[in-house]
Design goal:
The protein is of the alpha/beta class. The chain has ten helices and eight strands.
Length: 294
């Protein structure tokens, strides 16, 4: 495995490399068949991610949040990319360790996910999204729990960052209902143009942002027992309702049993996606999406 550090002086680069050797050690302990090919701390995070995944439109800035890590799986192995922002005064060893663990757990989960069959594109769509969200819930919650177990006392910076991130995610799903109004607007636009592909393309970033924000929120409060404090703010969101809470309950159950068989959660995911105006169906012409009023 290679460690490529593009920032800092030679002395600083060596310090970062030594810190990242821990990542290599933890990954080796997983004893997985897929190799960890490279860990990169690039000068330009977005450009590096786009080059690795052969894309042009990846952007780390997402509304209220900026992504600082990316896990990329290629045919020859896994590449982990971490932002240079992790090495500023806003972060310390604890905040970086949580991020390293989060990405390593994503890599670990790769071999735990079953291959999803495409005989039913409708079922495939729901299960794909179900596994994506559970993977985020698992990696986030487990990384926090590992740090709590290893370090009974953590830094003020670590606690402050976690609290700020949680507040940011709660703001993202509320935001004075701006996202909900945006979604309603996209549904109304669809009623005019009738193009499913256009609708889904415009909706996907919003769905990813809100759905992941929800699982990040619950993954954090589920391992800190701080749900009561934040519940009134969370329940203000138009995206958090009975359908959402049933999906979170399902994730909690699967996490508690360390069970990655999620096939029995397909209907829960179908209901959850109705919150975003989407309901898929297999037809003789392929996959179709019914656009629902919300």
């Amino acid at each position: 495995m290679d460690i490529l550090v593009e920032i800092g002086s030679e002395q600083q680069k060596e310090q970062v490399r030594k810190e990242l050797e821990l990542v290599q050690s933890v990954y080796s302990s997983f004893k997985l068949q897929i190799p960890l090919q490279k860990i990169i701390i690039p000068e330009d995070f977005d450009a590096t991610v786009n080059a690795l995944q052969d894309s042009k439109d990846y952007c780390s800035r997402r509304e209220e949040h900026i992504a600082v890590a990316k896990n990329i799986i290629k045919a020859d192995g896994i590449f982990l990319v971490f932002s240079k922002d992790l090495f500023t005064k806003l972060h310390d060893n604890f905040t970086r360790l949580q991020m390293y663990l989060h990405e390593l757990l994503h890599a670990y989960n790769v071999h735990r996910k079953p291959e999803l069959r495409k005989e039913s594109l409708c079922e495939y769509q729901y299960l794909l999204n179900l596994y994506i969200l559970f993977d985020e819930y698992y990696a986030n919650r487990k990384s926090f729990e590992i740090i709590a177990e290893l370090f009974p006392k953590t830094s003020f910076r670590y606690k402050r960052n976690n609290y700020c991130h949680l507040k940011g995610f709660i703001k993202a799903i509320n935001a004075d209902n701006v996202c909900h109004k945006n979604l309603c607007s996209k549904i109304n636009e669809f009623r005019s143009h009738g193009n499913i592909d256009t609708f889904l393309k415009s909706l996907n970033p919003l769905f990813a942002q809100i759905s992941k924000s929800i699982v990040y929120i619950y993954s954090y409060i589920d391992c800190t027992n701080k749900g009561t404090k934040f519940e009134p703010l969370i329940l203000k969101s138009k995206f958090v309702n009975e359908k959402t809470l049933k999906l979170i309950k399902f994730f909690r159950f699967k996490y508690g049993n360390n069970n990655f068989d999620l096939f029995d959660g397909k209907l829960l995911m179908e209901d959850f996606m109705k919150n975003f105006g989407m309901q898929f169906e297999d037809t003789s012409n392929g996959l179709y999406c019914h656009v629902l009023d919300i």
